Amino acid sequence: MSRTILFNKPFGTLPQFTDKGSEGSPRPTLSAHIDVKGVYPAGRLDRDSEGLMVLTSDGRLQARIADPKHKLAKRYWVQVEGLPDEAALEALRRGVTLKDGPTRPAKAEAIAEPEGLWQRDPPIRVRKSVPDSWIALELREGRNRQVRRMCAHVGHPCLRLIRASIGPWSLDGLQPGQWRDAPDLPLRG
């Protein structure tokens, strides 16, 4: 019987169970939070990003979630420098051209700070002369540091990045470092 869990990855935690690249003191990994045997991450989430990860013992489900050809939507809450105008949001919606080529169109909207959001440790850097704001960005691809690069491309560097959902699964009240079993849901593109 397969098992799938949802995990709210804290800032600074590696998205893997061991730290193979650490010289000196080891960095926090998934094993500091998850004691379930036989589940593996379906996709990655940078060490300096927070939020939802799906881990599963089902190899087919893992491939389906991680493979961009299935176009499973991933929604992010992004705290950015500045106040993006409609032109910046529209550029994200159309797709932008990064060094590794054009991105697919994304859903992008300005939002208020998400309700119930936890404090990040350490806190983001704040500049008194530059306001910050939040956008929701939904992608159906997953290049290396793509959300950060897209936001910087439209002139709004990312201060904080939280993945809120993957396909039908969401954080839904999970606090950083917490996990729960995922409901069995049929996946559609």
TrEMBL record:
Residues 4-153 form the Pseudouridine synthase RsuA/RluA-like domain. GO terms for molecular function: catalytic activity, acting on RNA; pseudouridine synthase activity; RNA binding. Keywords: Isomerase. One of its GO terms (biological process) is pseudouridine synthesis. Its EC number is 5.4.99.-. PROSITE patterns: PSI_RSU. Belongs to the pseudouridine synthase RsuA family. This is Pseudouridine synthase. It comes from Pseudooceanicola antarcticus. The lineage of its organism: Bacteria, Pseudomonadati, Pseudomonadota, Alphaproteobacteria, Rhodobacterales.
